[in-house]
């Protein structure tokens, strides 16, 4: 047995230095036999289309401050994926979306504060008729509207989002024959 995650060395129930990883999400205390499952988290991200462009946020915070990202975030306990994507978009950029359409999902990891979180990112798509002005906030300092082909992937904050945008480009190319 290994200490797969350094933060999980001590048992959170009895404090013993004998908390071991059975596998990448199952931890067990040899002293008090406490079992803990560090299950993966659900994340949603939104592809908001207006005409031939999609919305990219400019991140206001690290990681990736100043770089591009899709609107989105972690799903709250008790929340559906659809409710989460509606909430995140409203909170981050003030746009009220209806009937987000599920596209696909991708496994991902988010290292944060010394803990590596395994996630599954669900991508939703929606179309809006008009672009409201953004009120900049701590999380989002600006909004950029780009066609898929215009996006410089080097400006995108996270590998998972680069992969998502790459996948969308491929499917757009397959559908239209354009690049
Ligand atoms: Zn214990």
What does this structure look like?
With 179 residues, the protein is α+β, with helices and mostly antiparallel strands. The chain has 2 domains: 6-37, no CATH class; 41-176, Nucleoside Triphosphate Pyrophosphohydrolase (Alpha-Beta Complex), CATH 3.90.79.10. Helices cover 17% and strands 36% of the residues. It is built from 2 helices and 10 strands, in the order βββββββαβββα. The protein has helices at residues 81-93, 159-176; strands spanning 19-21, 26-29, 35-37, 41-50, 53-59, 68-69, 72-74, 101-112, 115-127, 140-146. The strands form 2 sheets. Strands 4, 5, 6, 7, 8, 9 and 10 form a 7-stranded mixed β-sheet that branches. The chain has a 3-stranded antiparallel β-sheet with strand order 1-2-3, with no helix packed on it. The chain is elongated, with a radius of gyration of 19 Å. The N and C termini lie far apart (49 Å). Zinc ion (ZN) binds next to loops.
């Amino acid at each position: 047995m290994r200490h797969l995650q350094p933060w999980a060395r001590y048992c959170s129930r009895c404090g013993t230095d004998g908390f071991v990883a059975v596998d990448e999400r199952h931890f067990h205390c040899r002293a008090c036999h406490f079992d803990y499952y560090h299950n993966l988290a659900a994340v949603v991200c939104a592809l908001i289309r207006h005409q031939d462009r999609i919305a990219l946020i400019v991140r206001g915070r690290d990681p990736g401050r100043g770089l591009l990202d899709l609107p989105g975030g972690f799903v709250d306990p008790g929340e559906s994926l659809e409710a989460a994507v509606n909430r995140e978009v409203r909170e981050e950029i003030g746009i009220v979306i209806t009937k987000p359409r599920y596209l696909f999902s991708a496994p991902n990891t988010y290292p944060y504060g010394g803990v590596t979180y395994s996630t599954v990112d669900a991508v939703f798509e929606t179309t809006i008729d008009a672009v409201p002005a953004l009120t900049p906030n701590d999380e989002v300092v600006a909004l950029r509207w780009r066609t898929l082909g215009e996006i410089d992937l080097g400006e995108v904050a996270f590998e998972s989002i680069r992969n998502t945008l790459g996948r969308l480009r491929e499917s757009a190319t397959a559908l239209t024959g354009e690049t």
